[in-house]
Amino acid sequence: MYVHTYDGREIGLGEPQPPKTPPPPPPLQKTFISNIIAYKDAKERCQSTNCAIYVPSVLRDQAKVDLVVFFHGLDTCSPTYDADPQKVVKNFRLDYQVENATRKAALVVPLVLWNSPDRNQGFIRSAWSAAYLNAFVEEVLDEIGKSSKVRPSLDHLIIVGHSAGYDIMVPLAEQFECNVAETKKGALQKLSKVIAMDIPHADRHCKALEDWARSRPALKVFLVFSKAGTPPDVWTAWRKKNAKVPLPSNIQQWNMLNDKHCVLPWKYLYPLL
Predict the structure, then answer these.
(1) Contact (Cβ atoms closer than 8 angstroms) between residue 57 and residue 22
(2) How far apart are the C-alpha atoms of 147 and 145, rounded to whole Å?
(3) In what order do the strands lie in the sheet with 153-162?
(4) How far apart are CA 265 and CA 111, in angstroms?
(5) For 248-258, what is the mean pLDDT?
(6) Residue 147: which pLDDT band, with cuts at 50, 70 and 90?
(7) Which of 90, 101, 106, 252 is buried most deeply by CB count within 10 Å?
(8) How far apart are CA 134 and CA 70, in angstroms?
(9) Which domains does the chain have, with CATH numbers?
């Protein structure tokens, strides 16, 4: 009698092959025109807001996402973005940064018409009040859902502003200080980080950023400064005048002494997410 033993290999088929893992889905990249953020300028022209969305591969079709809302500055950082929010994403490597950050987040970049001669009339400021920002985030999640298997809900909100972004961030900060009801609802209830890159251009801006942190102790506020220019000078003078008032413990100050103004959003988004 002969006894045959088998080692698990099938005759003629070679080594068993592991099951194939499907490739990850590509990142989501799309542009849409907001129905929430629109306004008339001083010449009675209706201004819409064109927006770019980027969702990293690993967040595609997820039920919950963190969302970064990025407010760019004036169109003076080369190369210019020519009224195209996708160019803002590419020029500052925002897609690369959210894709490679340790903590992944979806990204939306609304195009803000800072360079309009009507910039200081307050139209943009009023269009981005707390109530409108909450509605805008829901609109962004709807847009992600249209291109995904699921419409995600928001886990955490992160607001990032660079330079002239103070025109939105300062009034918003003051709404938090004034305990406006909309700051305790919706997306703003889930605000976990504020990243201000060369934002303060006046004492009022400095105070607003500090008060924003004080109004919500669980909020992390990062102040990122370039090596020279108005924002770091204004901030240094402000802190010198208020040296006896300690900074809130939830504010971190990053002084990037080797980096110019336009480098900050190109380099420091992903380490702060």
Answers:
(1) no
(2) 5
(3) 28-40, 46-55, 106-110, 64-71, 153-162, 191-197, 220-225, 251-255
(4) 15
(5) 96
(6) very high
(7) 106
(8) 14
(9) 50-272 (3.40.50.1820)
Rg (CA), the chain: 23
Task: Assign 248 a pLDDT band (cuts: 50, 70, 90).
Answer: very high
Structure-token pair, residue 249: 């413990």
**How many whole angstroms separate alpha carbon 232 and alpha carbon 255?**
8
Q: How far apart are CA 226 and CA 103, in angstroms?
A: 24
